[in-house]
Amino acid sequence: MQINPGFGYTFTSSGSGHNLSIEQPWNPIQLYEEEECVPFKIKEVYIATTGGSTVIRYQVCPGTLNNTVPVLDDYVSGTTVKLDRVTSGVANPPIAQIGSAAFDATSKETFIVLRAGVPATGTPNFPDTDVTSNRYPLVVAGNALPADSDTYGYLLIAKITVDNVTTPTVFTVTQYVTGSLWGDRLKLGTLTARYYYARI
Question: Which of 54, 88, 95, 116 has the fewest CB neighbours in a 10 Å radius?
Answer without folding.
Answer: 88
